[in-house]
């Protein structure tokens, strides 16, 4: 009775964590060989934040800095910025909603390096602002080696972010990514040269950035716009539009009200609807 009441309480207070635990128990039943892996990373922990910290640390730790030290640093980061846990949950929901290859909430946490990279950057960002810049740089460097995703700790990233396939991605120091953005593989959000100061793109709410797109300089990609695959964007993009090409030009309407959620990369269907 007590355990049943506790389970119901967890479901009510933290439905994402409750669902992840249920999925973890199912994995342990169906694949006993993974039992130790599942228990050590999910079922032995009392909170989503602890499980997240241990999963990331297990991947990032090595002979230079062990996983235990990284877990302690992540606890400090979450204490300093509790919003990390809420954003990480929103990213799981976003990935489940937008990625047809994601069948369970537990998948991004255990297996998807794009999701893990964003959460590592969230931790590094908190440590960066707490004055622990070298530890943050270490996490950035280690993440880049492991995943081929390079995100500066100072970049500002919102919640509800989906990074699909998570490979060959660069996000610069002064980049801003607002809520509910989807980013495909091979994307660069970078600068244009040796300029200092605010020099990286601002990606507004609901934007879909296609595979291989390069968005360069202190420019703004307006809310709910689409950047077509392999485009090179050098100038501001109006809200609710699709841009494509090298250099990118407006080719029409965004195709829907929230491109990041729809995940529709078909540019032809909007041709002729631009300004």
From TrEMBL:
Alphabetized Gene3D superfamilies for the sequence: Hexapeptide repeat proteins, serine acetyltransferase, domain 1
Domain Serine acetyltransferase N-terminal: 16-120
GO cellular component term of the entry, any: cytoplasm
Keywords: Acyltransferase, Amino-acid biosynthesis, Repeat, Transferase
Pathway, per record: Amino-acid biosynthesis; L-cysteine biosynthesis; L-cysteine from L-serine: step 1/2
Domain of life: Bacteria
Enzyme Commission number(s): 2.3.1.30
Enzyme class: transferase
Catalytically driven reaction(s): L-serine + acetyl-CoA = O-acetyl-L-serine + CoA
Alphabetical list of Pfam families matching this protein: SATase_N
InterPro entries per the UniProt record, alphabetical: Hexapep_transf_CS, LbH_SAT, Ser_AcTrfase_N, Ser_AcTrfase_N_sf, Ser_O-AcTrfase, Serine_acetyltransferase, Trimer_LpxA-like_sf
UniProt-listed SUPFAM superfamilies: Trimeric LpxA-like enzymes
GO BP annotations, alphabetical order: cysteine biosynthetic process from serine
A molecular function (GO) term: serine O-acetyltransferase activity
PANTHER family, per the entry: SERINE ACETYLTRANSFERASE
Similarity comment: Belongs to the transferase hexapeptide repeat family.
Record-given protein name: Serine acetyltransferase
Organism per entry: Aestuariivirga litoralis
Gene name of this polypeptide: cysE
């Amino acid at each position: 009775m007590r355990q049943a009441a506790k389970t119901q309480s967890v479901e009510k207070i933290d439905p994402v964590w409750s669902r992840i635990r249920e999925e973890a128990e199912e994995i342990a039943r169906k694949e006993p060989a993974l039992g130790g892996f599942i228990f050590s990373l999910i079922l032995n922990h009392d909170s989503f934040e602890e499980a997240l910290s241990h999963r990331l640390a297990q991947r990032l730790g090595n002979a230079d800095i062990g996983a235990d030290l990284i877990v302690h640093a992540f606890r400090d980061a979450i204490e300093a910025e509790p919003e990390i846990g809420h954003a990480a949950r929103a990213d799981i929901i976003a990935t489940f909603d937008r990625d047809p290859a994601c069948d369970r909430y537990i998948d991004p946490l255990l297996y998807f390096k794009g999701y893990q990279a964003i959460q590592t950057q969230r931790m590094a960002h908190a440590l960066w602002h707490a004055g622990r810049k070298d530890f943050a740089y270490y996490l950035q460097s280690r993440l880049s080696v492991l995943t081929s995703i390079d995100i500066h700790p100072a970049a500002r990233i919102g919640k509800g972010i989906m990074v699909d396939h998570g490979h060959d991605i660069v996000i610069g120091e002064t980049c801003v990514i607002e809520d509910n953005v989807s980013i495909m593989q091979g994307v660069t959000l970078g600068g244009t040269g040796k300029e200092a100061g605010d020099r990286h793109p601002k990606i507004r709410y609901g934007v879909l950035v296609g595979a291989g797109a390069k968005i360069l300089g202190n420019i703004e990609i307006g809310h709910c716009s689409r950047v077509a695959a392999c485009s090179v964007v050098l100038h501001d993009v109006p809200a609710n539009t699709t841009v494509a090409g090298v250099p990118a030009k407006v080719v029409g309407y965004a195709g829907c009200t929230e491109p990041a959620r729809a995940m529709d990369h078909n540019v032809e269907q909007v041709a002729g609807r631009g300004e």
